[in-house]
Amino acid sequence: MNLVLNLTEQCNLRCSYCYYNHLQEERFCSMNLNILERAIAYGFQRSLELGDSFLNITFFGGEPLLKKDLILKGVDIAKKYKPEKMKLQFAVNTNGTLINSFWLDFFKKENFYLYLSLDGPAEIHDKQRYTIRKHGTFALIEPHLKTIRQLNTTILRVITHDHIQGLSDSIEWIVNQGFTKVTTAVDFDGKWTSDHFNELKKEYEKIASYWVSLKKKKHPLYLGTIQDKIRLELESTSYKKKTCSILERILAVSANGTLFPCTRFVSSKPDALYKIGTVYTGIDESKTQEIKSFLKSDKETCKECELKSRCVGNECGCITFSTTNTLSKVSPEVCTHERMLALICDEAAMQLI
């Protein structure tokens, strides 16, 4: 199971696409030690209840590296609580601007998985990822890239409709830095037009062609943008079984100790949707029925779609919630995107047969 600990709502950046930007003044909550310990203890309890033999603890935010002591104490607490035969793994999602030699040594020592938000070289990255004073952040990350690539690192490149041009170039640049695990995430904000999607299609086709060329050379790159779709088709499975771990294989804890079924649901607000319990009371099963229904069935509008098992609009709880504020609807943007991407991925796969 994956236990996601939202150590703080605070962040040192104001990225153009951040879905919390308009709420930053309200986002001041940070986790205390008592909640941290209770969350980790409950994470092990939940793992045992599910029959899992491992627990992955992901430090999340905001920017989790703002809370150095909580990460260090969290690792110690987890080691203390770990059942004898259970495997324990750590991960951190970070914007990378606070990484230094201490963190690099610590991540290596504790065998962390590192999920780094990096949009490409400076001229691309700095257009979207900047500080409160609008200063670009690439220069803060660049000195550490050589060491970061030696860790177990996955690069996340965010796509917005304002910065589509150069997407394929940024992917190639990231791979040329030595990273072999890369994926992309689209900022579905309700403002995508047909022109935006046409432009994105061209970039995706370039990326797919680049990926095919690397695979023919036996390059070790795992490009999630392309390969996740292909893998689901080859294995005749779905995102819900392979990737979307909502409720069943993931538990997200807000800074104030509230439990949520996955990361994008997390909030410290009293009226937050899809709260399913607290670290003190555990999961309230009476509040999980809609989530379980989502896991067991397709959306009404998706039932006849041949792409439904590979479509994040039907299969991913976080994307469904973040784009429609519910688990029962599908965003037209997501639907359009998934149809386009699936076709490109399938055409790419055929070139390797």
Could you give the topology of this structure?
Layout (H helix, E strand, L loop, with lengths): L1 E5 L26 H18 L3 E7 L7 H14 L5 E8 L6 H9 L3 E5 L4 H7 L9 H4 L3 H4 L3 E8 L7 H10 L4 E6 L7 H23 L5 E2 H11 L4 H4 L7 E4 L4 E3 L16 E2 L3 E2 L5 H8 L15 H4 L1 H8 L7 H19 L3
Parallel strand pairs: 1-2, 1-8, 2-3, 3-4, 4-5, 5-6, 6-7
Antiparallel strand pairs: 8-9, 9-10, 10-11
Helix pairs in contact: 1-2, 7-8, 8-14, 9-14
Question: Gist?
Answer:
With 353 residues, the protein is α/β, with parallel strands linked by helices. It is 41% helix and 15% strand. The two termini are 35 Å apart.
Can you walk through the features of this model?
- The chain is 41% helix and 15% strand.
- It is of the alpha/beta class and 353 residues long.
- It has a domain of 241 residues: TIM Barrel (Alpha-Beta Barrel), CATH 3.20.20.70.
- Strands 7-6-5-4-3-2-1-8-9-10-11 form an eleven-stranded mixed β-sheet.
- Strand 6, helix 8 and strand 7 form a beta-alpha-beta unit.
- The radius of gyration is 20 Å and the shape is globular.
- The model has no long low-confidence stretch (mean pLDDT 95).
